[in-house]
Design goal:
MetI-like fold; 347 residues; globular; mainly alpha; 72% helix
């Protein structure tokens, strides 16, 4: 008997009973399978101990990671230290560091014509200038675009989608679109002829071809880095900006004293990703200019591709040595950026 004034418990809805009944049936069906799985797991736990049991779950991922990450690196080192045009390692003679010596044989590293492998050093210098311009311009415009899109403006969602849209396109599609625009009978020259200015062979001139390659890469990838920086800006507490407004701080001072310091971890991610992507540029520029005119837009990855897969004979050892040098440079540059970021954070 309940006490006076006590209310009766609320009835359980029929659909809730049916739901619990369905869950119970599912559990009864799954329980035998789980018991079968539990038998080997308990055996592993007794043999390895609870602390080592995690390696059982990590083992499949480690095997796949080693198969598709570490094994190619080992094979690359093996090819870089062997010579000849044969594919099988057993048919390739060991040459040691001869491929690396060939790539570094230069009288003056600033003059590719003085190098034994002159095409490699032209590709190196083209890549250096390309990465410097592309990363600098892209990060600057991505930051400016992210700041604008972070404000309360009309059709903000539409403009965010517009800036991100090129990222969704295939690099080859991007290259073909801009090649269609910039070729001698393309859209841009048609417009210039209509205005009376006159067209120009944009992709035949070495300087213009290189400049348009930089523009093409920035246009294609800027939206991705804008999205990352926009996420970093939205993670900054609004209270900080409200306090700066109350102190009547100028917009430039707010940007320099608040936005940049709080955005520096995100900026580091963007710089590292942009640097790696810039050095690895190949498909879009190769489809856009083919590396020409001459070697004006031949970059390091294209050199590796042509030496190892498109040339005759196929110099796998030289291509592998060049790829290892590129990987080493990327590791060093990434470590330098991390060190500078840590130093600025501690200082």
């Amino acid at each position: 008997m309940t006490g006076q004034g006590a209310s009766a418990p609320a009835p359980i809805p029929p659909n809730h009973i049916a739901k619990r009944g369905g869950d119970g049936i599912a559990l009864r069906l799954i329980a035998p399978v789980m018991r079968l799985v539990e038998i080997p797991m308990l055996a592993f736990q007794r043999m390895l101990g609870i602390n080592r049991l995690a390696w059982v779950f990590l083992a499949p991922n480690l095997v796949l990671f080693g198969l598709f990450a570490f094994l190619p690196v080992i094979l690359n080192i093996a090819y870089a230290t062997t010579g000849g045009a044969n594919v099988l390692l057993v048919d390739r003679p060991f040459v040691g560091a001869r491929n690396f010596a060939l790539l570094s044989d230069c009288a003056n590293y600033l003059d590719p014509n003085s190098c034994r492998e002159d095409k490699f050093w032209r590709a190196v210098w083209n890549t250096t200038w390309f990465v410097t311009l592309q990363v600098g311009i892209m990060v600057a415009f991505s930051l400016l675009t992210a700041i604008v899109l972070n404000r309360e403006i009309r059709a903000r969602g539409f403009f965010r989608a517009v800036f991100f849209f090129p990222v969704l396109l295939s690099p080859v599609v991007v290259a073909l679109i801009w090649k269609w625009i910039l070729q001698r009978e393309g859209v841009l020259n048609a417009f210039l002829d209509w205005t009376g200015v006159g067209g120009y062979n944009w992709l035949v001139d070495a300087d213009w071809a290189f400049g348009w390659s930089v523009f093409l890469s920035v246009w294609a990838h800027m939206g991705f880095y804008t999205l990352i920086l926009l996420a970093g800006l939205q993670a900054i507490p609004r209270d900080v900006y409200e306090a700066a407004t109350m102190d009547r701080a100028s917009p430039w001072r707010v940007f320099r004293r608040i936005t940049l310091p709080l955005l520096s971890p995100t900026m580091l991610v963007v710089l590292v990703l942009a640097l790696i992507k810039g050095v690895q540029t190949f498909d879009e520029v190769y489809a856009f200019t083919g590396g020409g005119p001459g070697t004006a837009t031949t970059f390091i990855i294209q050199y590796i591709y042509e030496e190892g897969f498109a040339g005759a004979p196929r110099l796998f050892g030289l291509a592998a040595a060049a790829s290892l040098l590129v990987a080493g440079v990327l590791v060093v540059l990434t470590l330098v950026q991390l060190w500078l970021n840590r130093r600025s954070a501690n200082g």
